[in-house]
Amino acid sequence: MLNKIKVIGEFLPPEIKERDNKDGERKEKIIYFNLKVPRPNNNSETILRCLATKQEVVEKIEQGIAEKDIIEVQGYLRNEIKGRQIIINVREINKLNISFEQIDRKNSNYLRLIGKIITNIDSQNDNQGKINFRISVPREVGSQKFSDKSSIPPLYFCVVDEEKVAGILAKVKEQLKEHDIILLEGSLQTKIVVNKIWKDGEEKTEISRPSHIIVQAFTLIDSDLTSNFYSLAGFPRVIGETKLKVIDFTKPREDKKVDNQEKY
Questions:
Q1: Are the CB atoms for 29 and 51 separated by under 8 Å?
Q2: Domains delineated in the chain
Q3: What pLDDT, in 10s, does the model give residues 22-78?
Q4: For 142-168, what is the mean pLDDT?
Q5: Cα separation of 55 and 76, whole Å?
Q6: Could you give the CA distance from residue 92 to residue 56 in angstroms, rounded to a whole number?
Q7: How many CA atoms lie within 13 A of 204 on its CB side?
Q8: Distance from C-alpha of 179 to C-alpha of 133, rounded to nearest angstrom
């Protein structure tokens, strides 16, 4: 299923860890790093969390990428095990010979997902030109075993913000509803939330980094409800010719001969 993102930003100090490889025979390196990325809708930045598990990418980082380099990463989204941060699983990485100021804000943070809306959009209150919904996106790799809780498709939190993307809010409320399957286009953003909590009799600071997708465009594909069949007229379709084979029932049936072979 479609789940991909391309981001350009500044490489921040990495964190190198080790894990067992798939065969469990040896250790392999994985690299976590943050990417400072310009926001497409204003002159600020967002910090995106990235993970490199593909060994070719790990080697490329170790051999040729340094702190503050401007890089382009391509990969797919995955949820953090704990918390609400979305991580980019990096599959391709390239160093760019440009400065941070030369990054094209409008095209430096772009994702595409195909998934199902699982939020009742009609019940969402228009809070100062903004509504939220969640989208369920089948995993990009591996088999789907819905009996296994660990294989349940991840959910991503989406924000429709009229202030950031003009004209999108009315279209979403008018055309989309729960159970719709859509191709979603947007950008990934993460914010830092600082909370004061009481723990062990004293006040402590708790920092979380929830992520969300800013919806920039969508294409309504269909619905998973059997009562809804949306028109596919807007999609390029390749259609084969259905052939009708006429059977003459007046002729005796010809039984197909099957060779009898012993199984050992």
A1: no
A2: 3-223 (2.40.50.140)
A3: 766 778 999 999 999 999 878 889 999 999 999 999 999 999 999 999 999 999 999
A4: 75
A5: 16
A6: 9
A7: 7
A8: 12
Tokens of 47: 């910090």
CB burial of residue 178 (10 Å; 0-12, 13-18, 19+): middle
**Residue 90 CB coordination number (10 Å):** 25
Alpha carbon 48 to its chain's center = 13
Helix (H) or strand (E) holding 45, with range, is strand 45-52
Higher-pLDDT residue of 262 and 119 is 119
Whole-angstrom distance, CA of residue 70 vs CA of residue 66:
9
Top pLDDT among 234 and 44 is at: 44
Distance in angstroms (rounded) separating the CA atoms of residues 139 and 244: 39
For residue 145, the model assigns a pLDDT of: 45
Q: Which two tokens stand for residue 262?
A: 């012993």
Distance CA 108, CA 186 (A): 11
Torsion of CA 105, 115, 80, 162, to 10 degrees: 40
DSSP 89-125: EEEEEEEESS-GGGS-GGGSEEEEEEEEE-S-GGG--
Question: Residues 140, 207: contact at Cβ < 8 Å?
Answer: no
If you count them, how many residues does the chain have? 264
The pTM is what? 0.81
